[in-house]
Model the fold of this input.
Amino acid sequence: DGGITQSPKYLFRKEGQNVTLSCEQNLNHDAMYWYRQDPGQGLRLIYYSQIVNDFQKGDIAEGYSVSREKKESFPLTVTSAQKNPTAFYLCASKQARGADSPLHFGNGTRLTVT
Amino acid sequence: QKEVEQNSGPLSVPEGAIASLNCTYSDRVSQSFFWYRQYSGKSPELIMSIYSNGDKEDGRFTAQLNKASQYVSLLIRDSQPSDSATYLCAVNGGSGNTGKLIFGQGTTLQVKP
Done:
């Protein structure tokens, strides 16, 4: 079955530690995205990548980093510089780089930093 | 001004009624519009996409788009308790062909038996 796999589902970290969230897709999609969702709020774009070895900052990139070394993988690192890292993180992909195709989401990773 | 606005609700309707969810957007050049359903603790799932003015129907769901008024809506006919969820409106990033989607904050729908 094709889809987007995010791991782990739940992640707990101490403040000051970097943590990497995994996102893998086998849909052969070109573009991949990372969103963050806080309680009662919509999704905010962190980073996105339209092709391998290239990515762009979204609206809230500070304190985050990404890489796109393979088409299938788009890991997100939450660094210690991110002031409020506790959130629900969603990885998504879409077939084409353009505007028309919808996003498909993974099941999300819920990160708690104490 | 927020780029995509939705009333956060909750919108409460009785079972069997029509639920009407509304969304406005600020970027006039936006081309693609999507409705996602998100159950509590889960990831969003695509319900409808619409690209041109008018209505688009899929089962109990109808999406309506009015680009002149920068308004998109979702109607759910014969609402069921299983429709209780948060509905997210998403609009493509507008200027440029970046493929970014901008999301509203979502409207919570409660369908009461």
In short: The mean pLDDT of chain B is 92. Chain B has no helices and eleven strands. The interface with chain A takes residues 4, 6, 8, 31-32, 34, 42-46, 49, 51, 88, 90, 92-93, 97-106 of chain B (CB under 8 Å). The longest strand of chain B covers residues 85-92.
